[in-house]
Amino acid sequence: MENTETMVGTIHYSNNGKVMMRMISELIRKNERQILRGESKLSLDTLSLACLNQFFAVHYEGLGTSSTNRNGLNKACVKDVEFLYQIVQKTPVMKLVHGTSTLQGTVDISRFNNLSELEIKKVPVHLLSGLKGLRHQLKVLSCTRCINTLQEVFGNHRDGDTVLEYWPHLHTLDLSFNHIETLGKLMECFPNLRSLDLSHNNIVSVEHYLKWLPKLMYLNMGYNRLKNIPELGIQGKRCLISLVVRNNNLDNLDGVEELDTLEELEASHNCIHDNKWLEVFSQLNHLAMVNLKGNPFSYEEQFRANVIGSMSAKAVKRCVSFLTILS
Q: At 46, is the secondary structure helix, strand, or coil?
């Protein structure tokens, strides 16, 4: 079940920072247990987080010692700052969004020491500090509407060369609704990735770069400009369960026949017109859902019967009660 969100509004630090701290504290105290258990997602906008970081910087110095009267903070405000500091260090799930206001300086997320799931939306990633420091702990990462290339988030140059920095525990990566055009060797950084969402980008070809994902089970590349089915490595072909390639420029299904464990194929609204491509289903014994509507050949009168007739006998027999053919 998807996490609920504990939303935190923005109050400018320069105008009424102490009131902002009080409001955030009160809101989080009401949802503290759910937040710390990961049942509720802590949702901050960039300005609110920047204000929190300013208060943390004012209150804590050196090794983290504090004083109730330091820099003019009263006891009530100190209590809020210290409470929120502990929450930040213990929060496992967070969403960070950027609104319409101009962001001054960087936004630091390095204090989220316990973070395992992070969602970033509309955040200028060049102003985001501390993300790479979380790469050894993050399991789920979503970056939407904020990047043009993978290099912006995952790249690291040293002496002009790209240095690979691995994200060993990351199993779910959502990079949808961006302006990504190509992948690259950075895909090698995610050896344990199981779910990858690259939908709503501008990708024409994945080339050979998905071969670095041997454990991939769910791949969504809908709403791109693909001309061919994405190519996986030997291990990846044996793991993939769900493939979404809807709304691309596909005129063939070449390669689908190699996806031995495939259960769901969503390939609607492409340019496939030749019934010969239905033959790719003949050996896919686990197939349970096929969506080919919106392709030229889907308008033929006997299309549904043709699809079923081309499928593996084992798949049809096993799935007769729940097999879904959308046309």
A: helix
